[in-house]
Specification:
Layout lengths: L1 H19 L6 H18 L5 H21 L18 H18 L1
């Protein structure tokens, strides 16, 4: 049960970031809020290589989403980054990679 609770706690920042999407309509303010959530989360608990995992997720998913949108596989209504996707999405993905890494290590 302790492992499940730890995994769930690591996903709280993601749930918070997703929950703010319909509330904060300005993509730049939402990106700023997401950055603040990531900073607070990592200041409360940071593990080895979390920043590298975050940057990898941010970059890799920005590239992937760019390809998906450019080929028509995916589309977004909010397109504040490269006129293709919301600017806050890579931040969300970056922290998602951290949460996934932590969950995999627990499992």
């Amino acid at each position: 049960m302790k492992k499940i609770n730890y995994i769930l706690l690591n996903f709280v920042p993601i749930l918070l970031m997703v929950g703010l999407i319909p509330i904060i309509k300005n993509d730049y303010l939402l990106a700023l809020a997401d950055v603040a959530i990531v900073i607070i989360s990592l200041s409360l608990h940071r593990e080895a290589k979390d920043l590298k995992i975050f940057l990898f997720g941010l970059i890799a998913l920005t590239i992937s989403e760019t390809i998906f949108v450019s080929t028509g596989i995916e589309s977004f209504i909010r397109t504040s980054l490269f006129d293709l996707m919301p600017i806050w999405l890579p931040i969300l993905w970056g922290y998602g990679f951290i949460a996934i890494k932590r969950a995999v290590l627990i499992i």
